[in-house]
Amino acid sequence: MKKARIKTPLGIAELCGDENGLASVKVLDKGSISSEIPAELKLATQQLQGFFNRALKDFDLKLNPQGTDFQKRVWKELLEIPYGTTTSYLELSRKLGDEKAIRAVAAANGKNPLWIIVPCHRVIGSDGSLTGYAGGLHRKKWLLDLENPPKQQSLF
Question: Are 25 and 15 in contact (CB under 8 A)?
């Protein structure tokens, strides 16, 4: 498994993957930046930088996250949440066919190894509250604000 660390506005992003695809992306509070990016991770690092620069809304990468079949179903559904929008854990459970599975869906969301790429940050509480994010709520809020910048009011 190849690794690369790049600087992002959220901290140092560590990407892991190989020829089978990107396996994980997480943001570290500290660490050093890679001097060289392995070929298998170059496209992912470029797309992440494009996302942070608001030049890219949708990632087009080969993904290879490790998890249970249920977790992979949840992560696949997360990929369907459009840029700039949010959904609730309850709505996600309904889309997966069982609204009673809300806790299992929330747990799978929390185990998402592909932060940002698989947009678990777009899942919020049914009441609109920011709940749980492995990278911390401050990062979740930052990502949601990046995707939904405040609109400037008309001056006229």
Answer: yes
CATH of the domain spanning 69-147, picked from 1.20.1290.10, 3.40.1110.10, 1.10.10.10, 3.90.180.10? 1.10.10.10
Q: Which of 86, 5, 77 is nearest to 48 (CA)?
A: 5
Tell me if residue 16 is catalytic.
Answer: no
Helix (H) or strand (E) holding 138: helix 137-147
Spell out the CATH class of 2-53. Answer: alpha beta
From the list 76, 8, 77, the residue with the least C-alpha distance to 44 is: 8
32, two tokens: 């050093």
Report d(CA 110, CA 28) in Å as an integer: 16
Report pTM: 0.90
Element (H, E) at 16: strand 11-18
Catalytic residue among 10, 27, 117, 120: 120
**Per-residue pLDDT reduced to its tens digit, 75-121:** 999 999 999 999 999 999 999 999 899 999 999 999 999 999 999 99
